[in-house]
């Protein structure tokens, strides 16, 4: 039987590879779609359709993982991710890009299941630290994903990053199949089969007020952040003449900062300051950085704003996941975190579509105001996030773990 550390490593790799695939498209997809004559609205939808499908898939996958186990859900999801990227690599039309994104979105709603796996094998008081490791996987994915996407697209064309992401997903599937043990034991799955449907039963198994607050906070944070990711490649291309390779390196820098904070510092920061305070500080830093980005007048200032985005997001994301996890009963982790990720996916759809629509208002105003409106809208979402963070509990009453 693999050790807890080995299992955490495989989950880490699962999320890392998932985020590599997500990050691969960030510097490539807008330019790839422009090559097929896509409008800013269509580019927004191309980014957003992935997450719209995830919105419906995440709670379903979370519920399936509670009933049948985490391992089979993770395996099927990674195989679907591989298929989606291969279709995007093979396809040479905008329609095929949409098809690949839809398949990948249906398969990529497994982040909540991966978080539930971590919650299964960690003590409640260690959840935020463990979620920080998940955040580090996100960060590393943002290091290697955009870098891989930018470099391979520059040298081998826009299809190459899709093939690389598909191959990584297949490797991940093999690791899950051959090594990863099941974390959700049969006796708990039997309890789940006797439970009521997701709504309204979920609210009988969470601390309702903290859970609703943290889910709403997460939604607004993701919506604002997603506006930025959808328009960023176009912003630096038109404002600073950054190609896909340079944009990939920028996102790699953001990912590196996130990895340092979430992989090494977040546990100590949570112990010293508490989750709710860190979340509020992170939201404030992220809001100010997004507000500043369109006002930058040089590359150095733009890079500094990117650093602020990385720091704010790294303080905010794992603390919100930790609070959500500790507010739920052990056997309802998959559904509680799956619902949170599902609403996050809805926000990742709203953000890019809204960003693409707002970007159209800046096209006739010259380079100096390009993408100003989307960034201001993103900062507005983070202002709401900051306000909600102030309402998060300083201390959460720990729910008792049920007897086996």
Rough shape?
A: globular
How many domain regions? 1
Number of helices: 16
Percentage beta strand: under 5%
In N-to-C order, the SSE pattern is HHHHHHHHHHHHHHHH
Largest sheet: none
Give the overall average pLDDT: 81
Measured as a percent range, the helix fraction is over 70%
Radius of gyration: 20 Å
**Class by SSE composition:** mainly alpha
CATH class value: Mainly Alpha
By CATH, the topology is: Growth Hormone, Chain: A
Any low-confidence stretches, pLDDT <50, length ≥5? 397-404
CATH architecture: Up-down Bundle
- The number of E-state strands comes to 0
N-to-C span:
20 Å
The CATH homologous superfamily is called MFS general substrate transporter like domains
Question: Would you give an account of this structure?
Answer:
By secondary structure, the chain is an all-alpha fold. It has one domain (4-178, 191-389): Up-down Bundle (Growth Hormone, Chain: A), CATH 1.20.1250.20. Helix content is 78%, strand content 0%. The chain is built from 16 helices and no strands. The protein has helices at 4-24, 29-35, 40-68, 70-90, 94-107, 111-120, 127-156, 160-178, 186-193, 198-201, 208-240, 244-273, 275-292, 299-326, 333-359, 372-389.
């Amino acid at each position: 039987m693999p050790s807890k550390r080995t299992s955490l490593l495989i989950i880490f790799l699962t999320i890392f590879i998932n985020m590599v695939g997500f990050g691969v498209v960030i510097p490539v997809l807008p330019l790839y779609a422009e090559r097929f004559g896509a409008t800013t609205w269509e580019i927004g939808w191309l980014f957003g359709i992935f997450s719209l499908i995830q919105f419906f898939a995440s709670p379903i996958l979370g519920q399936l993982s509670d009933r049948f186990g985490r391992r089979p859900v993770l395996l099927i999801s990674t195989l679907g991710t591989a298929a989606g990227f291969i279709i995007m690599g093979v396809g040479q039309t905008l329609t095929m890009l949409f098809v690949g994104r839809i398949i990948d979105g249906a398969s990529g709603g497994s982040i909540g299941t991966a978080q539930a796996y971590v919650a299964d094998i960690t003590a409640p008081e260690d959840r935020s630290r463990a979620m920080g490791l998940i955040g580090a996987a996100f960060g590393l994915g943002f290091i290697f994903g955009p870098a891989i996407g930018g470099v391979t697209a520059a040298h081998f064309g826009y299809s190459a990053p899709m093939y690389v992401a598909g191959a990584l997903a297949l490797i991940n599937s093999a690791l899950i199949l051959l090594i990863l043990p099941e974390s959700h034991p049969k006796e708990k799955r039997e309890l789940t089969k006797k439970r009521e449907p997701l709504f309204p039963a979920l609210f009988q198994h969470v601390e309702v007020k903290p859970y609703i607050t943290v889910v709403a906070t997460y939604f607004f944070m993701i919506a604002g952040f997603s506006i930025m990711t959808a328009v960023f490649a176009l912003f630096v291309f038109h404002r600073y003449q950054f190609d896909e390779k340079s944009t990939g390196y920028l996102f790699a820098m953001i990912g590196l900062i996130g990895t340092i904070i979430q992989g090494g510092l977040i546990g100590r920061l949570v112990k010293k300051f508490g989750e709710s305070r860190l979340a509020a500080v992170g939201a404030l830093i992220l809001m100010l950085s997004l507000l500043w980005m369109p006002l930058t007048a040089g590359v150095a200032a733009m890079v500094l704003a990117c650093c602020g985005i990385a720091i704010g997001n790294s303080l905010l994301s794992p603390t919100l996941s930790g609070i959500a996890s500790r507010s739920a009963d052990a056997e309802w982790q998959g559904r509680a975190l799956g619902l949170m990720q599902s609403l996050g996916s809805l926000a990742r759809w709203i953000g890019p579509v809204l960003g693409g629509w707002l970007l159209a208002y800046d096209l006739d105003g010259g380079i100096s105001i390009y993408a100003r409106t989307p960034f201001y809208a993103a900062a507005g979402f983070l202002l709401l996030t900051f306000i909600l963070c102030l309402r998060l509990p300083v201390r959460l009453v720990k729910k008792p773990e049920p007897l086996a």
